[in-house]
Design a protein that fits this description.
Blueprint: H1 4-8, E1 13-15, E2 28-31, E3 36-40, E4 43-49, E5 60-64, E6 67-71, E7 83-86, E8 91-93, E9 105-109, E10 112-116, E11 130-133, E12 138-140, E13 153-157, E14 160-164, E15 167-168, E16 173-174, E17 178-181, E18 186-188, E19 200-204, E20 207-211, E21 220-223, E22 228-231, E23 242-245, E24 250-253, E25 264-267, E26 272-274, E27 286-287, E28 295-299, E29 310-316, E30 318-321, E31 324-327, E32 340-344, E33 347-351, E34 354-355, E35 360-361, E36 365-368, E37 373-375, E38 387-391, E39 394-398, E40 412-415, E41 420-422, E42 434-437, E43 442-445, E44 461-464, E45 469-472, E46 483-487, E47 490-494, E48 511-514, E49 519-522, E50 533-537, E51 540-544, E52 556-559, E53 564-567, E54 578-579, E55 587-591, E56 602-606, E57 609-612, E58 614-616
Parallel strand pairs: 1-2
Antiparallel strand pairs: 2-3, 3-58, 4-29, 5-6, 6-7, 7-8, 9-10, 10-11, 11-12, 13-14, 14-17, 15-16, 17-18, 19-20, 20-21, 21-22, 23-24, 24-25, 25-26, 27-28, 28-29, 30-57, 31-56, 32-33, 33-36, 34-35, 36-37, 38-39, 39-40, 40-41, 42-43, 43-44, 44-45, 46-47, 47-48, 48-49, 50-51, 51-52, 52-53, 54-55, ...
C-alpha cells in the first residue's frame, strides 16, 4: 500500500492554523490548536448572485459566469428588447435588441453573441430575426432563420451556431427543423429524429446535445455536425431548463417537471449524475450557455412568478458566501425617516429625522457599534432631510427641513464624538441635498426650497472649509433626495427627485461626478428613484432603497466609476432611508426610513466572500 508521502511527495504537516490557498486542496494536515486532522475539500454548490435589473423569463442567455448576457424575454406580459450584462458581481444595462422578443435562443460570448428566433407576446407570432452582439450593441444580420420559430434549443458560437427544433405555426406545433449559421446565413440541415420544443441546447455546431423538451422529456439527442444519435437520458424529465457546457461535459438545471424544479444534473460524456440543487425552483430560466459545467449561471425565469433572481454554480475548493443584507440592531429613538448619516458599518452616526405628528422634526443623535445603537447628544437644531457626511467622531450635518417650512435651513453643525457645535451657514437654505467629504472639506449639492425657481429644485453646489461655505459650480441635473458619496474633490451625486418638465422626469437615474471644480455626467443608474441611501467613494459607491415611482423598493446598485451593477435587494424595501455615508460597497449600513410609515429597522450589507472549504477528518 502506498503511503501518504509516496502519493503527495510530502509528509503530513503539523500546523497551528489552517492553510488558506485553494491550491492546498487534497492535502491533509494536523492542526495542533484544535488537535484534529484536516483537509481542504472540493465541492459543488449553487450560491445567490445579484438579481437582474428587470425581472423576466424566457430570455436568451449566453456567455460565461463572469461575463454573461441576458437578452430579450417576457416581462409579464410583453416581450422585451432589454439586454443586461453580468460581470461576476452584478448586472448592468447593455445595448438593446433591435427586435424585441421572448422565447428566443442565443449562444456565444459577451463580445461575440448571437440571438435568433423567438416570438412576440402577446399574441406570440414567430420571427426568424437574427442579431449579433459585440459587447456593446446589437446588429441585425441579413440572414434570418429559414424557418422562423420560438422555444428552440441553441448551441455554438456567433460564427458557427446551431438552431434545433422549436415551435411555430398557427395553431403552434413542435418542429423537427435544424439549421446551422455560418456568420452570415442560416442553412437547413438534417432534421431531428422527432419534433420537440422548449428543450435545452449545449455544445458547439459539430458536437451538440438537445436535452429534454415538451412535454417533460428525459431524452437526449446528440448531433455531430451531420447526423443525430440517441444519448443517455437525464434522470429528471423536464422542459424549459437552463444548461451549459459541452457535449461531453454538460450541466442542466431547473426547468418544468411540472412544476418548476431545483434539480441539477451533470454529464461526463457517459451518464448524467445529480449534483447540488438550485436554491430556488425555477423554469424558463436563462443560462450562461458558453460556460463550462463546473462554473455556470442561472438567471431570471418563473419561480412561480416572474423573477430577477440569479444563482452561481461553482465546483471548487472554495466556499462562496453570497453578498446579502441582514438585519442589525434597531434604532433606540424609535421609528423615523429622512435621517442624516455618517460613519461606517461598525461605527455609524444617525442624526435628525422625521417622526409622525405631533413630534415631526427631531434632534436625536445615535451611535452604532456594529451591533446596537446608543443615544448620544442632540443636534442644536431639530430637522429632517439633513445632509450628512464624515465619521462617527467627526461628522457634518448641513441644511434640512423644519416643519412646517416652507423653505429649508441653512444651519450647519459638526460632531466631535460627544457634542454638536454650530458652524457657518449654507449660502442657500435647502433640504434633501447630497453631501460628501469631511468636517473641514465638505460638499453640499442639489436640494429643495419652495422659493427657488424653476420648480423649487436646485442644482447648486457649495464647499465647506470647516468654518464657512463658498459657491461651487452647479450640477448638470437639478434634484433632491439624491445619494451623495466621496470627498470634496472626488464626489458622486446619483439619482434623486426632479420636478423639472419632461423629459427629465420627476424621478431620475442621473449620475454626476465632481472633481473639485466641476460636475461631469456619468452612466445613469439601472433604475431611476429618489429618497435613497448611499455609501462609499466616487469609484465604488453602493446606493440602496428609495421610491421607484410605484413602490418603496429594496433595490441596491453599486457604481464602479463607469457602470451601475445590481446588488442583492434589501430585506425591507424603504424610501427616505438613512445611511452610513463612509461605509463601503462591501460593508454598508441602512437605517430608518419609510416602509411605508416609519421604521426603526437597521440593515447591514456584506459583499461576497470566498474562503477555502476546510473540513475536519473524522472516523465516522
Amino acid at each position: 500500500m502506498s503511503t501518504y508521502r509516496e502519493i503527495h511527495g510530502k509528509a503530513v504537516k503539523s500546523l497551528s492554523t489552517d492553510p488558506t490557498a485553494e491550491t492546498d486542496a487534497g492535502q491533509i494536515w494536523y492542526n495542533t490548536t484544535s488537535d484534529t486532522f484536516k483537509s481542504i475539500v472540493q465541492s459543488a454548490a449553487w450560491s445567490s448572485g445579484s438579481p437582474l435589473g428587470t425581472a423576466r423569463n424566457d430570455m436568451g442567455g449566453f456567455g460565461i459566469q463572469t461575463a454573461a448576457v441576458a437578452a430579450g424575454g417576457n416581462i409579464d406580459p410583453g416581450h422585451s428588447t432589454l439586454t443586461e450584462e453580468y460581470n461576476g458581481s452584478g448586472w448592468s444595462t447593455g445595448g438593446a435588441l433591435n427586435t424585441g422578443r421572448t422565447a428566443l435562443s442565443a449562444c456565444g460570448t459577451l463580445t461575440a453573441g448571437l440571438a435568433f428566433g423567438g416570438g412576440y407576446w402577446p399574441p406570440n407570432p414567430t420571427t426568424g430575426a437574427t442579431e449579433e452582439y459585440n459587447g456593446t450593441a446589437w446588429t441585425t444580420s441579413p440572414g434570418s432563420l429559414v424557418a422562423g420559430r420560438y422555444n428552440m434549443a441553441g448551441a455554438g458560437i456567433q460564427t458557427a451556431a446551431l438552431a434545433m427544433t422549436g415551435r411555430s405555426g398557427s395553431p403552434p406545433s413542435t418542429q423537427t427543423n435544424v439549421e446551422e449559421y455560418d456568420g452570415s446565413s442560416w442553412t437547413a440541415v438534417t432534421v431531428s429524429p422527432y419534433a420537440n420544443a422548449a428543450s435545452t441546447g449545449v455544445g458547439i455546431q459539430t458536437a451538440a446535445l438537445n436535452i429534454g423538451g415538451e412535454p417533460y422529456k428525459n431524452t437526449v439527442l446528440v448531433y455531430d455536425g451531420s447526423n443525430w444519435t440517441t444519448g443517455p437520458n437525464i434522470n429528471t424529465a423536464r422542459d424549459e431548463a437552463g444548461g451549459s457546457g459541452t457535449s461531453t461535459a454538460a450541466i442542466i438545471f431547473g426547468g418544468n417537471t411540472p412544476p418548476e424544479t431545483v434539480n441539477t444534473e451533470q454529464f461526463d460524456g457517459t451518464s448524467w449524475t445529480e449534483t447540488s440543487n438550485l436554491g430556488t425552483a425555477v423554469k424558463y430560466n436563462g443560462a450562461s450557455n458558453a460556460a463550462p459545467n463546473t462554473t455556470t449561471l442561472s438567471f431570471g425565469g418563473y419561480a412561480p412568478s416572474v423573477t430577477a433572481s440569479t444563482e452561481e454554480f461553482n465546483t471548487s475548493a472554495n466556499v462562496i458566501t453570497a453578498a446579502a443584507w441582514a438585519s442589525g440592531g434597531a434604532l433606540t429613538g424609535g421609528a423615523k425617516q429622512s435621517i442624516g448619516g455618517a460613519g461606517t458599518q461598525s461605527a455609524a452616526l444617525a442624526f435628525g429625522g422625521y417622526k409622525p405628528a405631533p413630534t415631526r422634526n427631531i434632534n436625536e443623535s445615535e451611535s452604532y457599534d456594529g451591533t446596537s445603537w446608543t443615544e448620544g447628544s442632540n443636534l442644536n437644531t431639530a430637522r429632517s432631510w439633513i445632509g450628512g457626511t464624515g465619521t462617527q467622531t467627526a461628522a457634518l450635518g448641513a441644511g434640512g427641513y423644519s416643519y412646517p417650512g416652507p423653505t429649508g435651513l441653512k444651519a450647519t453643525e459638526t460632531y466631535d464624538g460627544s457634542s454638536w457645535t454650530s458652524g457657518g451657514n449654507l449660502i442657500t437654505e435647502r433640504y434633501g441635498g447630497g453631501c460628501a467629504g469631511t468636517t473641514t472639506a465638505g460638499l453640499f449639492f442639489g436640494g429643495y426650497n419652495n422659493a427657488l425657481p424653476p420648480g423649487n429644485v436646485t442644482n447648486l453646489t457649495e464647499e465647506y472649509d470647516g468654518s464657512s461655505w463658498t459657491a461651487g459650480n452647479a450640477m448638470g441635473t437639478a434634484r433632491y433626495t439624491l445619494a451623495g458619496t466621496g470627498t470634496q474633490s472626488a464626489a458622486l451625486g446619483a439619482m434623486g427627485y426632479n420636478y423639472l418638465p419632461s423629459p427629465a422626469g420627476p424621478l431620475t437615474g442621473a449620475t454626476e461626478k465632481y472633481d473639485g471644480t466641476s460636475w461631469t455626467a456619468g452612466t445613469a443608474s439601472n433604475i431611476a428613484r429618489n429618497s435613497v441611501g448611499g455609501c462609499g467613494v466616487q469609484t465604488a459607491t453602493l446606493v440602496f432603497g428609495g421610491w421607484d415611482g410605484s413602490t418603496r423598493t429594496g433595490v441596491s446598485e453599486s457604481y464602479d466609476g463607469t457602470s451601475w451593477i445590481t446588488q442583492p435587494t434589501m430585506v425591507t424595501g424603504r424610501s427616505h432611508v438613512g445611511s452610513a455615508s463612509n461605509g463601503t460597497t462591501a460593508l454598508g449600513l441602512a437605517f430608518g426610513g419609510s416602509p411605508p410609515g416609519y421604521t426603526d429597522a437597521t440593515e447591514e450589507f456584506t459583499g461576497e466572500t470566498t474562503a477555502v472549504n476546510v473540513k475536519t477528518i473524522t472516523t465516522s
